[in-house]
Amino acid sequence: MSARKIVLTSGKGGVGKTTTTANLGATLAKRGQRVILIDADIGLRNLDLVLGLEKRIVFDLVEVAEGRCQLRQALIKDKRFESLSILPAAQTREKEAITAAQFSAIVELAAEQADYVLIDCPAGIETGFRNAVAGASEAIVVTTPEVSAIRDADRVVGKIADEGKPIRLIVNRLRPEMVRSGDMLSVEDVCEVLAIELLGVVPDDEEVIDTTNRGEPIVLNESNRLAAIYDKIARRLEGEIVPFTNFDGQSFFGRLIDALKAG
Amino acid sequence: MIEFLKKLFGQSGSSATAKERLRLVLMTDHLELAPELIEAMKRDLVDVISRHVEVDRDKIEVNFERQDSALAMLANIPILSVNRPNPSLTLVPVPEPVASVQPPVAANGAPPNAAPPRVRKRRKRTSKKAAGTNAAPASATPASAAAN
Predict the structure, then answer these.
(1) What does the pLDDT average to over A218-234?
(2) Which residues in chain B touch residue A189, judged by CB atoms under 8 angstroms apart?
(3) Chain A partners of B33 at a C-beta cutoff of 8 Å?
(4) Which helix (H) or strand (E) holds A11?
């Protein structure tokens, strides 16, 4: 059976696409899936850095496309997870260095030896985005509960929907206390505006900055709450029905406590 | 204290504003994404109006703008002449886009220079400037192009 080919995209930069790709990939690998992560952000590669694999790069995506090496030579195995490897982007080339057909062929090749191929899409809606989406058969749109991120997400949702590919949503960096006080859009609000199926909600967590500094996906730390949250997302992706954690319960009592704290 | 009460009743924040702004901006984005839809609407609109009056198809302008909390569609459709058997009412040339200089003929007692009634509550509405020649009956029926 061929792998699921999923692009993680957002339109806007800086919403946590790469971090989400790394953590979701690592979680799927922890669950025994064979996972290949492809960094499609040619010229601005970062997935290797987030995963702490930057020193092990020998070949990259463009070199595979140009036939300078085999896919297996360019794949870097993440030793912390049995079945996780990444295909790094080229850093000194441009998005146009590869065509949609070349990219899709590489994704197909990767799909033959994996259960999940996750594509970390570059920001924007130009060539890099088009290539990344062309290679995928489904999409995960990552957004934060902010107007600019949601507007951009809506734009990519429109573009991917035009191609008839299924799309699901991850709301990243939610701050439940702000939602409760009415200062941040709730997950319900975001879902209502974007009108796509919700895959998961990841609360904002300062520890992500710390673990990224070290090049470790946060899901390595089993005691962090995000490990459990990514596990739920991975299970939903695998088709299991997993109830959502309610982050923005708006009980009167909860608001009273918040108001007293803030007051 | 007011802040406290607002927080208590969950109305303090800007999230409602954010949602409303997003709703509007996405509505505009979606319209901008579909120029072919606007063209189709324009065509249909003109077809309907053309049954009653002859319009200048080359000078039609369709714009969208925000009014109050809704999006309004504004169509400017210059009328060239009225297609009527009555010879006294045909071929009344209308100068250019905005025709505010028309003889106050007032076919059915409508005030001269009668702009089509503006329907406040409608989300999307059409207002035709350049209407309101002595073709008052035609111009008084604004094409309510309610594209969603």
Answers:
(1) 96
(2) 15, 18-19
(3) 158
(4) none
Q: Give the count of beta carbons closer than 10 Å to the beta carbon of residue A250.
A: 13
pLDDT of residue B72: 76
Domains present along chain A, CATH in parentheses? 4-262 (3.40.50.300)
Predicted ipTM > 0.90: no
Contact A173, A144 (CB under 8 A): yes
CA angle centred on A148, ends A204 and A207, rounded to 5°: 15
The single residue listed with the structure tokens 């071929």 is B91
CA B132 to chain centre: 14
Q: Which long-range contacts does B31-40 make (Cβ < 8 Å, 24+ apart)?
A: B31/B64, B31/B71, B33/A158, B37/B147, B38/B62
Q: Which residue has the tokens 């998961």?
A: A200
- Report the pLDDT value the prediction gives residue A82, as an integer from 0 to 100: 86
pLDDT digits (tens, 9 = 90+) for B92-145: 555 454 444 444 443 444 444 444 433 333 333 334 433 333 333 333 334 344
Q: What is the pLDDT of residue A257?
A: 60
Put simply, the answer to whether A155 touches B4 (Cβ < 8 Å) is no
What CA–CA distance (Å, rounded) separates A33 from A19? 19
Which residues from A are below 8 Å from B34, CB to CB?
A: none
Question: Residue A45 has which token pair?
Answer: 């590669």
CB A86 within 8 A of CB A116: no
- DSSP SS3 for B76: strand
| Whether the Cβ atoms of residue B69 and residue B24 lie closer than 8 Å to each other | yes
Hey, what are A210's tokens? 């710390």
Instruction: Compute the distance between CA of residue B32 and CA of residue A9 in angstroms, rounded to an integer.
Output: 22
Model pTM score: 0.72
Confirm if B115 and B129 have CB atoms less than 8 A apart: yes
- The confidence score (pLDDT) of residue A143 equals 98
Residue A149 contacts residue A36 (beta carbons within 8 Å)? no
Q: Are B46 and B55 in contact (CB under 8 A)?
A: yes
The reply to whether A193 touches chain B by the CB within 8 Å rule is: yes
Percent of chain B surpassing pLDDT 70: 41
